[in-house]
Amino acid sequence: YAHQCVCRCTRANSADGCNREMYQLAIENFKLPFEGGFPLKQMYKAPDSKREQDELRAYLLQCRQELGSRLVERMCASGGKPSKWWLCFSKRKFMGKSLEAPGRR
Fold first, then answer.
1. Other CB atoms within 10 Å distance of the CB of residue 57
2. Per-residue three-class SS string for 30-63
3. What φ, ψ does residue 32 adopt, rounded to 5°?
């Protein structure tokens, strides 16, 4: 998810633009770790009830929003524009793999 955040900030040219992109990315519909289409689905056990599933989704949504806002604080710390140093990570993959769904870049 952090890689997706950095990739989205390449579209923005200000801290406000980055914050808008991070909010939009955070609230997009996302797969839970045990659902089909999640890259590492086999590593997670499905929750026992719908209530637990809803709590997990709310928790992950809050984590996504917090990570996005903190990342923008770091990336746009100097001058209010995204740092070139941070944006260079948008071109790299973690361990040579992309954990994003196909066609979602």
1. 14
2. CCCCCCCCCCCHHHCCCCCCHHHHHHHHHHHHHH
3. -80, 160
H/E run at residue 74: helix 50-75
Confidence of residue 105 (pLDDT cuts 50, 70, 90): very low
Tokens found for residue 22? 């991070």
Backbone CA torsion sign across 14, 20, 24, 26: positive
The CA-based diameter of the chain, rounded to the nearest angstrom, is: 48
Task: For residue 24, give the 3-state DSSP assignment.
Answer: helix
pLDDT tens profile 73-104:
888 877 778 877 777 777 777 666 555 554 45
Q: Which residues are paired to 97 by β-bridges?
A: 94
Cα R_g (the chain), whole angstroms: 15
Q: Measure the CA–CA gap between 54 and 102, rounded to whole angstroms.
A: 25
Distance CA 6, CA 62 (A): 18
Q: Does the CA dihedral 10-83-59-40 come out positive or negative?
A: positive
